[in-house]
Amino acid sequence: MLVRKKLFNAGITKVELIENIIMTESNEADILNTFIFLKDTGIIEVNSFEDTEWKYRSEVYNVPFTLVFDLEIHSEFNYLLKAYSIIRIVNRVAPTTITLEINYLKRIINATDAFRAINEYHIMCATLSSPESSRITKTLLMFINFAGLPNKHEIVEACERYSYKKHSNRELPDFHSVMIYDKCIEHFFTQFDSEETIKYLPIWLWWRLTNILPMRPSEFFLLRYNCIEFDNLSNEFWINITRIKEEKRDRTEHEKLNYSKVKIDNATYQFIKQFKNIQEILHVTKTTPEYLLPYSLYQKSNKKSRTVAHNRMDLHVFKIQLKKFHHEVIVKYYGYEECNQIRPGDTRHFAIINMFLQGYNPLSIARMAGHNKIATQENYYNHAVHFAESHIYHLAQQKHENRINEKITNTLLGNKRDVYNNGLQYSYDELQHFRKVEYGYCKDLTPEFPDNCTDNCMSCTLYIFKPAINEQEAAIKNLTEYSCELGNRITQEIENIFKIGKRINTINTIRVEESLLNKSRSLSQLKEAKALVDSFRIEVDSYE
After folding, report:
1. Which residue, 347, 346, 352, 358, is CA-closest to 374?
2. Residue 23 phi, psi (nearest 5)
3. For residue 269, how far is the Cα from the chain centroid?
4. CA-to-CA distance for 285 and 99, rounded, in angstroms?
5. Residue 236 β-bridge partners
6. Nearest in space to 379 (alpha carbons), one of 365, 359, 395
7. Distance separating alpha carbons of residues 402 and 408, to the nearest angstrom
8. What one-character DSSP code corresponds to residue 19?
9. Is there a contact between 523 and 493 (Cβ–Cβ < 8 Å)?
10. What residues contact 179, with CB distance under 8 A and at least 6 apart?
11. How many Å apart are CA 65 and CA 57, to the nearest integer?
12. Are 526 and 493 in contact (CB under 8 A)?
């Protein structure tokens, strides 16, 4: 099993060695010494190495996780499972993951009679889903590599049938669901009284903050009550974020949390102040809380009176709250049954993608997102293309709707729908006042025409798509081809942004930032142009 060891620091450069650890008698002393250190520092709570239950405590989680080593028939494997757990803890693996892995391994050991009946592993995997069999196989391979069992090759060969997938890009909700959440959250928390919104207050803060600041959910719950500050000298606003996944450290620094100071705008600063004021009005705590999301806020809003040992909300409680909000508010109240539920960690990815599309310096994104390497950001390329396309579709729908609204005053939705269906944005009599251009008309009546025109009329906001009857087939073909061309240029521009970002360490940073800004402006113009062109296509489809 791979273990990361820090050799030395040289300024900002850290030299590390990745060592493959195989359990032998020679490293038993190292395992025991590491156990003693973890015990003395409170990372694990246990009386002795021989105990059946160990409690693994991480500052990220409110409660410790219990690791149970209770094999009876094959009790000799309890030692290996404990040693495996120690290595995983040193490697800073999450308590939830280690707990799951130990349960997987105990299940395999019992099912295969301590790996003597490998065929039983195939029978067990046959009862599992493909993703679960892949996960359990990945765990088994790590353990076998560490344990150094005599029939290792036979076990590895058995695992090949259930080859696990390497980490891939996170699947994100569709853009339409994101827009539904944004609209519903804004309306719900600004239009309803506090009695209805109080139980979902943490969701409001989560949505507003993590969509612009790429925080991990665990970092969000670790925000201190006094996390924001205003610098009078520079007239700047800042927020202090607790980072939990910075560079891998040696085990003596295992649970030391890092803090990152990130610049924010006045609107975000004022919103956090407002959120704190709401808590004071509600008398959430008798004294100033330690965290921005104290557990007492959850108790107050959900009428929970049970005394708990922890003093802040955590991911487990928030997931329950978010699921309830989706069901009660998004689906039942607003009626969006088709809307996908957004997970706590999704908004961090939205924030990173949005920063890319705005042309942020990759170093700035890495710093704000808590990434160790700029290369990590390459995972967001496909998401960026997808979200750009989805955003364009949304803009196209809006532009089409806005053209209808321009022609309607003081009408009910029913009348509006009639106009939509009949395509009466402009009558032919009205069009006679405008210039005739290819497949339509131009509303620009200034003397500068055509010197001030764009390369293609269809991407101009003054263009009215209104082909003659004998031109319609050619016009629609032209519209479709131009839309495809713009789509290809958008994809290429996003790719260019990623390529330029990779060069940030090799050439002048200022030149890279200027280039990124120019590409971002170009991307925005292309998106607007394609949205306009696609809105004409929506218009055509609505007539058919």
Report:
1. 352
2. -70, 120
3. 22
4. 34
5. 231
6. 365
7. 10
8. E
9. yes
10. 394
11. 6
12. yes
Can you tell me the distance from the alpha carbon of 336 to that of 338, in angstroms, rounded to the nearest whole number? 5
Residue 182 has pLDDT above 80, yes or no: yes
Q: Are 137 and 105 in contact (CB under 8 A)?
A: no
- Here the tokens at position 99 are 């707990």
> Which is nearest to 260 in space by CA: 238, 236, 246, 241?
241
Q: Is the pLDDT of residue 8 over 50?
A: no
107 contacts 128 by C-beta, under 8 angstroms: no
What distance in Å separates the CA atoms of residue 358 and residue 524, rounded to the nearest whole number?
A: 8
User: Do the Cβ atoms of 136 and 128 come closer than 8 Å?
Assistant: yes
The pair of three-digit structure tokens given for residue 220, joined into one six-digit string: 């969000």
Question: What backbone phi and psi angles, to 5 degrees, belong to 349?
Answer: -70, -35
For the stretch 509-543, pLDDT in tens is 667 777 877 887 888 888 888 888 888 877 766 55
Tell me what pLDDT residue 112 has: 92
Retrieve residue 222's tokens: 């670790």
Q: Which residue has the tokens 């394609």?
A: 530
Half-sphere exposure of 86 (CA within 13 A, CB side): 24
* 440 and 460 Cβ atoms separated by less than 8 Å: no
CA–CA dist 382, 169 (Å, integer) = 9
- Report whether 369 contacts 506 (CB < 8 A): no
233 CB-near residues (< 8 Å, 6+ apart): none
Asked if 320 and 335 count as a contact pair (C-beta separation under 8 A), the reply is no
Alpha-carbon gap, residue 464 to 473, rounded angstroms = 17
Please report, for residues 64, 65, 251, 289, 371, the alpha-carbon distance to residue 45 in angstroms, rounded to integers and kept in the order given: 9, 10, 16, 27, 31
- Between CA 464 and CA 474 the distance in angstroms is 16
Q: Quote the CA–CA distance of 44 and 305 in Å, as a whole number.
A: 29
In this structure, the strands spanning 236-243 and 258-264 are antiparallel
Q: Flag whether pLDDT at 221 surpasses 80.
A: yes
CB burial readout 49-83, b (16+ within 10 A) else e: eeeeebbbbbebbbebbebebebeeeeebbbbbbb
Q: Is the pTM of this model over 0.70?
A: no
Residue type at 508 in one-letter notation = N
- What pLDDT score does 297 carry? 84
Instruction: Give 283-313 pLDDT, tens digit per residue.
Output: 777 788 899 999 888 887 666 655 555 688 8
Tokens representing 219 are: 């970092």
- What is the C-alpha to C-alpha distance for residues 199 and 203, in angstroms, rounded to an integer? 9
pLDDT at 252: 39
Residues found in the chain: 544
For residue range 373-424, list pLDDT tens digits in order. Answer: 555 556 666 667 766 766 676 667 666 666 655 544 433 333 333 333 333 4
Instruction: Select the more confidently predicted residue: 360 or 262.
Output: 262
Residues 23-77: pLDDT tens digits? 676 778 888 988 999 999 888 999 999 999 999 987 667 778 899 999 999 999 9
Residues 407/419, Cβ–Cβ less than 8 Å: yes
- Please state, in angstroms and as integers, the Cα–Cα distance from residue 419 to each residue in 83, 397, 542, following that order: 72, 16, 11
In the numeric block, the tokens 């827009």 are attached to 179
